[in-house]
C-alpha cells in the first residue's frame, strides 16, 4: 500500500507548485509538531495481558487546539495517523473553524475484542495521553471504528484523571453525555451540502445515480440524505463486498437490515460484487467513504462517473488525480467534502464550553451555510488559479494556516 503520509506531502507540493508559499512555511507544514506512540496494556477476559500500540500525532495548532479523530484498525500505523493529522490541519482551515489538526489511533481489529476489553483499551489510550489532551490543547473525536460510546468512556476517563468538568475534550459523545445534536450524521450530510453547492456548476442530472464505497457512519448517512433528496443509490459496499440494484436500493430498509445483521451483503433484491467492481460501475456520483488509497493509478482509468465526492480521507492517490483530471472527472476533495464532521464537532466543543445545547435544525443549518460558502469559494478559486478543486482547497487552507503562523 502507498504510504499515505507521502501522498499527503505530494499534495502539499502540488499546491505549492501552483501558488508559491515561503520555503520556511513549507518545511514547517510538512512536519508534525509532535508525534507520540504509547503502549497500552490490557488484561484480556481470559486473564492474559495484551499490549497494544497507540498513537497521537499533533500536526499544527496555529489556528487553535489540535483536533482530529481516533482510528481503531488493524492496518493503522504511525504513517497513516501522520497523514490523517496533516489532512485534519488543512481541513479545519478549509472549514474556517478555530482548530488545528491532529489524529490518533490504535493498531487493533476491534471486532476481535469483547466490550469490556474495548472499554479497557479505550480508557488506556486516554491514560497514556492525558497530559497532552484538553479543551484548549487537543480535542479528539471519532473516526473509523470509534463510536459515541467509546468517546464517552474516553471522556469519562479523562475527567477522572484530570478533574476537568466541561466535557469539551472529546467530541462525538452520545447526546446524554454532552454530545451535539446532528453530530452522528454530520459528515455524510455535510458531504451532501457540499455536493449541492458544487453540482450546479457541472452538468449533472437532477436525479443522479450514486455509488457509495463504505457503509459505516459516513457512507450510510450520505446514502440516506442523497436518497431523501431524489437521487438513486444504485450500489454500496462495506469491507465484505458490494451490493447493487440499478433501479435504486431502498436505503432506510438497508439501514435497518445493517443494524440488525451487521452486514449489507445478501440484502434482498440486490446482486453482489467485489469492491473493485463497485468502483467501476457507470454512475453520476461516486462516493468513496471507506479508507485511503482506493482510487489509484491501477483503477482510475476505468472509473466511469461524472464526479467524485471524497467522503473518506485520502481515498485518491496523486497519480490517480492526474488520470481523473485527464478524463475530465472533477474530484471534490476530502478536506472540503468531509469537513461537516469536524465542523459539528467544533460546535459540540463550543456548546460544552458555554454550557449550551443547540437544536439539530440550528446545527445543520449553520453547518450547511458555512460549508456551502467554503465550497463556493474553493470552486471560484480553482477557476481563478486554473487548477483543480484539490489544489484550490489546499491553497486556501495553506494561506489561512501560514497567515496564523505569521508568514
Ligand atoms: P466506520 O468505521 O463507521 O465505517 C467504515 C466503513 O468502511 C465500514 O462500512 C467498513 O466495512 C467499510 N470498509 C472498510 N474497509 C473497506 C474496504 N476495503 N472496501 C470497502 N469498504 C470498506 O468509519 P467512518 O467514520 O464512516 O469513516 C469512513 C471514512 O470517512 C474514513 O476515511 C474516515 O477517516 C472518514 N471520515 C470520517 C468522519 C466521521 O465523522 N466519522 C469525518 C471525516 C472523515
What does this molecule look like?
The chain starts with a helix and ends with a helix. Helix content is 44%, strand content 17%. The protein is built from 14 helices and twelve strands. The model has no long low-confidence stretch (mean pLDDT 97). The protein has helices at residues 4-18, 23-29, 78-94, 115-129, 148-162, 186-198, 217-228, 251-261, 275-279, 318-326, 334-337, 339-354, 360-385, 389-404, and strands at 34-43, 49-60, 66-73, 101-107, 138-142, 209-213, 232-238, 241-244, 271-273, 285-288, 307-309, 331-332. Strand 7 and strand 8 (241-244) form a beta hairpin. The chain folds into two domains: 33-167, Leucine Dehydrogenase, chain A, domain 1 (Rossmann fold); 186-337, 3-Layer(aba) Sandwich (Rossmann fold). The radius of gyration is 20 Å and the shape is globular. The strands form two sheets. A seven-stranded mixed sheet has the order 9-8-7-6-10-11-12. The chain has a five-stranded mixed sheet with strand order 1-2-4-3-5, with helices on both faces. It has 407 residues and is of the alpha/beta class. The structure holds nicotinamide-adenine-dinucleotide. Nicotinamide-adenine-dinucleotide binds next to helix 7 and strand 7.
Amino acid at each position: 500500500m502507498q504510504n499515505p503520509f507521502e501522498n499527503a506531502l505530494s499534495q502539499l507540493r502540488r499546491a505549492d507548485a501552483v501558488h508559491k508559499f515561503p520555503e520556511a512555511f513549507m518545511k514547517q507544514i510538512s512536519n508534525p509538531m509532535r508525534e507520540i506512540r504509547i503502549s497500552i496494556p490490557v488484561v484480556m477476559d481470559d486473564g492474559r495481558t495484551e499490549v497494544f500500540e497507540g498513537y497521537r500525532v499533533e500536526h499544527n495548532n496555529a489556528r487553535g487546539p489540535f483536533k482530529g479523530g481516533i482510528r481503531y484498525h488493524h492496518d493503522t500505523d504511525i504513517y497513516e495517523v501522520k497523514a490523517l493529522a496533516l489532512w485534519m490541519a488543512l481541513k479545519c482551515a478549509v472549514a474556517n473553524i478555530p482548530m488545528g489538526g491532529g489524529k490518533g489511533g490504535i493498531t487493533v481489529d476491534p471486532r476481535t475484542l469483547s466490550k469490556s476489553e474495548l472499554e479497557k483499551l479505550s480508557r488506556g489510550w486516554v491514560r497514556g495521553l492525558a497530559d497532552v489532551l484538553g479543551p484548549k490543547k487537543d480535542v479528539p473525536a471519532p473516526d473509523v471504528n470509534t463510536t459515541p460510546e467509546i468517546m464517552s468512556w474516553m471522556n469519562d476517563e479523562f475527567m477522572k484523571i484530570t478533574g476537568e468538568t466541561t466535557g469539551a475534550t472529546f467530541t462525538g459523545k452520545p447526546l446524554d453525555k454532552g454530545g451535539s445534536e446532528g453530530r452522528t450524521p454530520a459528515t455524510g450530510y455535510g458531504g451532501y451540502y457540499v455536493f449541492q453547492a458544487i453540482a450546479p456548476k457541472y452538468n449533472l442530472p437532477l436525479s443522479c445515480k450514486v455509488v457509495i464505497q463504505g457503509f459505516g457512519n459516513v457512507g450510510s448517512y450520505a446514502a440516506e440524505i442523497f436518497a431523501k433528496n431524489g437521487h438513486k443509490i444504485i450500489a454500496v459496499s462495506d469491507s465484505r463486498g458490494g451490493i447493487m440494484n440499478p433501479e435504486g436500493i431502498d436505503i432506510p430498509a438497508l439501514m435497518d437490515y445493517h443494524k440488525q445483521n451487521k452486514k449489507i451483503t445478501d440484502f434482498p433484491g440486490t446482486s453482489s460484487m467485489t469492491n473493485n467492481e463497485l468502483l467501476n460501475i457507470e454512475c453520476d456520483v461516486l462516493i468513496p467513504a471507506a479508507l485511503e488509497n482506493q482510487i489509484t493509478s491501477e483503477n482510475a482509468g476505468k472509473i466511469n462517473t461524472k464526479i467524485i465526492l471524497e467522503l473518506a480521507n485520502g481515498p485518491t492517490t496523486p497519480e490517480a488525480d492526474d488520470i481523473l483530471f485527464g478524463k475530465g472527472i472533477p474530484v471534490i476533495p476530502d478536506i472540503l467534502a468531509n469537513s461537516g464532521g469536524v465542523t459539528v464537532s467544533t460546535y459540540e466543543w463550543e456548546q460544552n464550553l458555554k454550557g449550551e445545547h443547540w437544536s439539530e435544525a440550528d446545527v445543520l443549518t449553520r453547518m450547511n451555510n458555512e460549508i456551502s460558502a467554503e465550497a463556493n469559494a474553493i470552486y471560484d478559486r480553482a477557476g481563478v488559479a486554473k487548477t483543480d478543486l484539490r489544489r484550490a482547497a489546499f491553497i486556501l487552507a495553506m494561506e489561512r494556516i501560514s497567515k496564523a503562523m505569521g508568514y
